[in-house]
Amino acid sequence: MSQTAQSGSVIVIGIAGGTGSGKTTITRRIQQHFGADVTVLYHDNYYKAYHNLSLEERSRLNYDHPDAFDTDLMIRDLRDLKAGRSVVCPVYDYTIHDRSSQTLTILPTRVIVVEGILIFHSKELRDLMDIRIFVDADADVRILRRIQRDVKERGRSLESVITQYLTTVKPMHEAFVEPSKRYADIIIPEGGMNQVAVDMVINRVAAHLAAQG
User: Fold this and answer.
1) Which H helix or E strand runs over 210?
2) Which among 68, 70, 91, 72 has a CA at the least distance from the CA of 80?
3) Phi, psi of 27 (to 5 degrees)
């Protein structure tokens, strides 16, 4: 586990993995178990703003490359949270492919979960994490989950989801997401369905919190 992450009563858990791998399911399980002790930072909310582009132009951008994210802002926010300061986080609107006008105030807690497909790509970001988890799932399972999610929850057409997957999601996964698995302390196959692995993570976090009093 990261030796450079700050010590103290705060524990930072990084949850990475491909689109549709089950990251959010595991994040929710941690939230359900520890309740108000958990704060979550979603890398997706740190997509760069493209207010100057049309909707059609924004829909053609590559959202699966590390450069699509304002990771520097996320790093600053995470450092503030670890130091006990609240942050104002941007909010991303998937239906318009852009940041919304809303923001989200996030309060510091003893458990901070950082979730996203590319959170292990930046050494500066991953060094702030105490536990790094990579959620693994077969590619066919991930694309089916993505289709179901994007059509039902994000207002996308089936054709647009498939096109985006083939042109950017799949190649960027192979180029950036999959290689970042080597930075993980724990690899969880089958995502949130892996009860044994989820229990191990929860027990590890509980032990840390108990040790810190």
Assistant:
1) helix 195-212
2) 72
3) -60, -45
